[in-house]
UniProtKB/TrEMBL annotation:
It catalyses: 2 L-dopa + O2 = 2 L-dopaquinone + 2 H2O; L-tyrosine + O2 = L-dopaquinone + H2O. Transmembrane segments: none annotated. Its cofactor is Cu(2+). This is tyrosinase. One of its GO terms (molecular function) is tyrosinase activity. Residues 91-108, 292-303 form the Tyrosinase copper-binding domain. It comes from the Eukaryota. Residues 1-21, 196-219, 459-501 are annotated as: Disordered. Residues 487-499 have a biased composition (Low complexity).
Length: 687
């Protein structure tokens, strides 16, 4: 099968200590590895121009994820398949994370080839420099949950700008159409059998949060992501530090396990980003999302977070279950047993005769890459490695939610009213104490600093440490010598480490929030039938009053977070056969929206005295709200969403001596908060 395409990633010979090249965060790559960034943009533009009939073209590789729903690389269905081709979908399946790893590796292989091509085309005077940079290039990720300093956009301008400045292969600096902004369909010759469906075929390029005229609204995407960042970061840290079982961590299928602490998942967080970026555009629909260039940055981050979790839980990778009807797809028949040796079709390994399976994609090294946090070769032993990882997660994602809240308030500079859209300031909470309320909306950080007795100018000058410990650029903007041309290596005495999280770093007047170094974490659990509305929908969770106009909800001041459900049409309305089975068997999915950071804001404002359940539960009964909108942003009645249940649970968290949170694992349910309300969970409902 010489012509068979393999999903091997970039061929790599690890260093003597096991080192391999690093996939870097997109802002780090752009700022500190300028030659690699330059050839990344040129290489991606080259890949996007390849004919759609080329199996390793951007269009063809993106199509594996959904439309145009044609077999790829000659990989047909299983012997028991009774339906026409309907994709290789593994969403809401325990294979969700394993399947996407070789998928990303194959995309990276195609991208790498284009990067090498453009590097070799530079003038002789600079060619060797770019070829050296290209040698260890790996595709970047976008960390949408990291703490953003100052007024930086949560949605990087490298992704949202229509044009980009590059040094082209002729050696001349010039602007080009930014290949990360969108993917162009209009300049492609697409045969009818490879075309997208009529709903999506009308667009000349991919769209993000399109307006009524079909224009992308990237600034709105940025505001939406920023507005819900606290809840998103809390969700990531909860998953990485408190989830110990792979089946709970991986996908969003409801397990009916009666465990209220297992409603979150990496797939749930994944869906949230799809929805926030898409908002009626391509990323919001799984069947066409892979055509948006941000898809690959997003999924590479999902792969990274999984790699971090794997390093923290090296012995938790159990995959052994009988495939139910709702889990079957074109290559996996209902009734078969899914295990770690189940084929991940259509991705062949280097033999070109065998497919990858979950057991063999457990590690990233065979695919030729690692992440800044997963450079295992830099650590003397496993204990040191895991201790450092926990510290990194705690600092980077606010795992110590008490410290995270107060430290973020202290170090961020105040915003100005002009920077806050009217939709975000139209409905302040009516009961906020007046000192905080008048400034909290237009100047939220500055107001909180004044309440806490902090000096905004002084606190804004506090410097933060780079989160990944990676080598940085030289003053002249050149490439770090240890970075572009070879994998990062260091002796054991020079190990990469995160800044140690402070055990407790809160103003004295709020010390009562952590008696005996413990506090109560509150989480909203949500559940619904995935395809109950035959389209993508989301459930917004609010704490306090909000504008009744659903158009304002994505940037509403009092929105805490969302539960995004990437549903599709049932009854044959979608070619996705797994989706059809999911719909027919009433597959339910789950998600979480952490509430603690929002509650802390109300404590600072004087509306709440503590995190004690005796105080918080009645407060949530009066102030917690939820509403539903569908794919186009219009409101849908809560009580008409099949299977929707909203609940609130809490768990005790102890802050360790090292500042890392330790979760009790015991969750209490609070049915009084939601019982009797539309879609509210009651004491008699199943967990």
């Amino acid at each position: 099968m010489a012509s068979t395409i393999t999903a091997t990633g970039v061929a790599t010979t690890p260093g003597p200590n096991g080192s391999v090249p690093i996939r870097r965060e997109i802002r780090d790559l752009q700022a500190n590895y300028k030659d690699q960034w330059n050839i990344y943009l040129l290489g991606l533009a080259d890949l996007q121009k390849k004919p759609v009939t080329d199996l390793l073209s951007y269009y063809s590789v993106a199509g594996i994820h959904g439309e145009p729903f044609v077999p790829w690389n000659g990989v047909t269905g299983n012997d028991k398949s009774t339906f026409r081709f309907g994709g290789y979908c593994t969403h809401s399946s325990i294979l969700f994370l394993p399947w996407h790893r070789p998928y990303l590796a194959m995309y990276e292989k195609a991208l790498y080839a284009s990067v090498q091509k453009v590097a070799s085309q530079f003038p002789e005077s600079t060619r060797a420099r770019y070829i050296a940079a290209a040698k260890n290039f790996r595709m970047p990720y976008w960390d949408w949950a990291t703490r953003i300093s100052g007024r930086d956009s949560a949605f990087p301008t490298a992704i949202s700008s229509q044009t980009a400045s590059v040094v082209d292969v002729d050696g001349v600096t010039k602007p080009i159409n930014n290949p990360l902004y969108s993917f162009q369909f209009s300049d492609k010759k697409i045969p009818p059998d490879l075309a997208l469906d009529n709903n999506w075929n009308q667009f000349p390029d991919t769209k993000r949060s399109p307006d009524q005229n079909g224009n992308s609204q990237n600034p709105l995407v940025s505001r939406v992501i920023t507005n819900e960042s606290a809840s998103l970061r809390n969700n990531v840290s909860l998953l990485l530090l408190s989830y110990k079982q792979f089946d709970a961590f991986s996908d969003n299928a409801w397990r009916q396990s009666n465990k209220p602490g297992e409603y979150g998942s990496m797939e749930d967080v994944h869906n949230e980003i799809h929805d926030k970026v898409g908002q009626g555009g391509h990323m919001g629909s799984l069947k066409v999302s892979a055509f948006d260039p941000v898809f690959w940055l997003h999924h590479t981050n999902i792969d990274r977070l999984w790699a971090i979790w794997q390093a923290l839980n090296p012995d938790s990778y159990a995959i052994d279950k009988v495939v139910q009807t709702n889990e079957a797809n074109f290559t996996i028949a209902a009734g078969t047993r899914v295990t770690a040796t189940t084929d991940l079709k259509p991705f062949y390994d280097s033999s070109a005769t065998k497919f990858w399976n979950a057991a063999r994609v457990k590690n990233t090294a065979p695919f030729g890459y690692a992440y800044p946090e997963t450079q295992r070769w830099l650590y003397e032993n496993e204990q040191t490695y895991q201790t450092t990882l926990r510290s990194q997660v705690t600092v980077q994602y606010g795992g110590n939610v008490i410290n995270n809240f107060f430290e973020n308030i202290a170090i961020l500079p105040p915003t100005t009213k002009a920077e806050v859209p009217s939709a975000e300031i139209s409905n302040p909470k009516p009961a906020l104490n007046m000192k905080f309320a008048k400034k909290a909306i237009a100047h939220p950080v500055q107001a909180a600093q004044e309440v806490l007795g902090l000096d905004p100018a002084k606190e804004a000058s506090v410097k933060t440490t780079a989160s990944d410990g990676a080598p940085k650029a030289q003053a002249n903007g050149g490439t770090p010598k240890s970075a572009e041309n070879k994998p990062t290596t260091a002796p054991a005495s020079a190990q990469v480490s995160a800044p140690a999280p402070a055990p407790l770093n809160i103003p004295p007047q709020f010390a009562h929030l952590v008696p005996n170094r413990t506090y109560t974490e509150y989480v909203t659990n949500l559940r619904a039938l995935k395809h109950g509305l035959s389209q993508t929908f989301r459930v917004y969770v609010f704490l306090g009053d909000f504008n009744p106009d659903p158009r304002t909800w994505p940037t509403e001041h009092n929105v805490v977070g969302r539960f995004a459900v990437l549903g599709q049409g049932g009854d044959g309305a979608t070619p996705c056969t797994k989706c059809q089975h999911d719909a027919a068997s009433d597959l339910a999915v789950t998600g979480t929206v952490p509430l603690t950071s929002a509650l802390l804001q109300d404590i600072v404002s004087g509306q709440l005295s503590s995190l004690d359940p005796a105080v918080v539960v009645p407060y949530l009964e009066a102030n917690l709200h939820w509403r539903v909108t569908v794919f186009d942003g219009s409101e849908h009645p809560r009580d008409q969403v099949p299977g929707l249940k909203v609940a609130v649970v809490s768990t005790e968290v102890r802050i360790g001596d090292d500042g890392v949170p330790v979760y009790s694992g015991v969750y209490d349910s609070h049915p009084g908060i939601t019982d009797g309300r539309p879609a509210g969970w009651g004491a008699g409902d199943q967990v």
